[in-house]
Amino acid sequence: MGIRTTTDDEVRRIMRLAAGRLLQRLPELTDELVARTRDTDEAYRRMVPTDDHWQSVYEAMRDGIGAILVPLAERRDLQQAEKTALRRAEQGLPMDSLLRSYRVSAQVMWDGLVGVIAEEEPDSLPVLIRSATKVWSAVDRQAVAAAEAYRRREAEMFGRTAERVQALLDALLEDRADATLVRSAAAALDLPELGRYAVVITRLPGRDGHTADGARPASLGAMRLLWRMRPDYEVAVVLLHEEEMDGLAHALRPHVTGSAGISPAVEGLAELGRARRLAELALRTCAGEGPEIARLEDRLPAALVVSQPELAGHLSAAVLRPILALDAADREVLLGTLEAWLRCEGSAMRAAGQLYCHRNTVFNRIRRIEQLTGRSLARPLDIVELSLALDAVRLLPVN
């Protein structure tokens, strides 16, 4: 026990001697550490001003070396490490670069300690070696404290940034975008002010607001997507680049298990509010419960119906009232036949295949529809009325 006490005392004496000498050379050590770091790490050169870097290294070395001379309760090196880490996180310096600087500082400090003892008491070098583990452990503790502080600040900054990004995206989609907001949004979202954009709105039956399996792809080929959740649906802003709308619809299909509406392409961020309204209109033309992707350009007649529900209701009543007055089973047979006939462009053979009946049955039902409504499916204007009235029945709520 006596030998160990003497050895521990000797280690403390040697460490205090070396630390005192290093503090006298602190500016020189700081120059060396800053130069080594900036020579080997581009991130420091690009993101941390030289004066800022020098001052923080000076303070860190002062507190780190000074910790050898003071009781554990008075050490300030961990607080200094946290302070530096917070600033580096705010500057955007990668954490890897920050932690690498602690390894370099440990090397510089240890080399300095060895140099002092080799110069003043070379016979005591074996005693100094006993402290190597403690020196490196102290630097490790500083690095751990720095990493924890960096992660906390990064999380705080990400939260603030994410909130701001979502607020800017909301403003664009809600048509509150002036020139200043468009510029701010372009910078924050890393999007061009002018470019080809579309808006997609997705909805799942029974579990609104989610795409397939909860997946929200950030990109589809060359297209980039930014998603915004709503209580009952999700909105995606799509930077199309050179992709055509057919390509967007095709790429979305594996990711949508419910309904989706796609706006026409618009030419800049300032037009996203209009695109969002048109995508909502396209979504309202989806009547089924199964997967369905509606491009507005493909649903313009139906979009007219859902955008003018009062007029559409009058139209359906005026055109289809006799059919709507039938019992439910009979009514659905005739409406389904009319729907298949229009979908098959007047081909009784194709309609019969979809309805699983004989073509003569289709002809008989069509004649009955014409008799009940007083419209002829041979007259273009009557076809338009019947088609719009059918959309009104399928898409509008029953009063």
From TrEMBL:
Lineage of origin: Bacteria, Bacillati, Actinomycetota, Actinomycetes, Streptosporangiales
Similarity-based family: Belongs to the CdaR family.
UniProt keyword DNA-binding, yes or no: yes
Protein's recorded name: DNA-binding PucR family transcriptional regulator
Organism expressing this protein natively: Planomonospora venezuelensis
InterPro entries noted in UniProt: CdaR-like_regulators, CdaR_GGDEF, PucR_C-HTH_dom, PucR_C-HTH_sf, RsbRD_N_dom
Annotated GO MF terms: DNA binding
UniProt keyword terms in alphabetical order: DNA-binding
Keyword Oxidoreductase included in the entry's annotation: no
PucR C-terminal helix-turn-helix domain segment(s): 334-392
All copies of domain RsbT co-antagonist protein RsbRD N-terminal, residue ranges: 27-164
The organism's place on the tree of life at top rank: Bacteria
Residue ranges constituting the CdaR GGDEF-like domain according to the UniProt record: 177-285
Gene3D superfamilies assigned: PucR C-terminal helix-turn-helix domain (1.10.10.2840)
